[in-house]
Amino acid sequence: MKPGTWLLGGVAAAALLGAAMIAPVAAEGVAAKNQPSFLPIPQLAAAASWTGCGVGVLGGFLNGDLDISPGTMGSNGSAAWATASCSVQMGAFVIEGFGSYGWAFGDISTVGLNTEIEAGGKAGVSVAPTTLLYASLAKSWLDTSIGDVDGWKFGGGIQVDVVSAARGKLQ
């Protein structure tokens, strides 16, 4: 026998075996009334909703440079924030308003950063029932040892519902 004949025989055997396995299911499907196909249609899970209000705590690390003539001063440290937000989901789109208050620790506070107040919003799209891609814009007020500084923050990130009552984000 030629090598190609073995391949053709294997394909034919697989087709016959597949038909023998599907035939009983197909017979049930034909006999059932109002059933358009013989295979059951999987039901999608209900999508999670991003609509609602919440409070939370965040932590992170800071690293920055300040260019002051004639040189540059660098510092790093950590920070913690308390935050509150309310979101509304419209189809796949989500908008949110938020506010936060943060404290700086470590070397970053030694060089003068004390606290931060932030108010802003974000807009995003739910790419999966528990995953949100977003862009954010916020007004920020910093309390420093040299006086108050205000500015704007722009960013983006991904937010994932870990469980129904907890969300994690990477920004």
How would you portray this structure in words?
With 171 residues, this protein is an alpha+beta fold. Helices cover 19% and strands 60% of the residues. It has two helices and seven strands. The protein has a seven-stranded antiparallel beta sheet with strand order 1-2-3-4-5-6-7. It is elongated and about 50 Å long. It starts with a helix and ends with a strand. Residues 1-21 and 42-46 have low confidence and may be disordered.
Would you summarize the structure shown here?
The chain is α+β, with helices and mostly antiparallel strands and 171 residues long. 19% of the residues lie in helices and 60% in strands.
SSE blueprint and pairings:
Blueprint: H1 3-31, E1 52-68, E2 71-90, E3 93-105, H2 107-110, E4 113-128, E5 131-144, E6 147-163, E7 166-170
Antiparallel strand pairs: 1-2, 2-3, 3-4, 4-5, 5-6, 6-7
Average of the residue pLDDT scores = 74
Structural class: alpha+beta
Low-confidence stretches: 1-21, 42-46
**Strand line-up across the major sheet:** 1-2-3-4-5-6-7
Task: Write down the Rg.
Answer: 29 Å
| Overall strand count | 7
In N-to-C order, the SSE pattern is HEEEHEEEE
Distance between the termini: 64 Å
Number of helices: 2
The largest sheet is:
7 strands, antiparallel
Outline, from the CA principal axes? Answer: elongated
β-sheet strand percentage: over 45%
Q: Approximately how much helix is present in the residues?
A: 10-25%
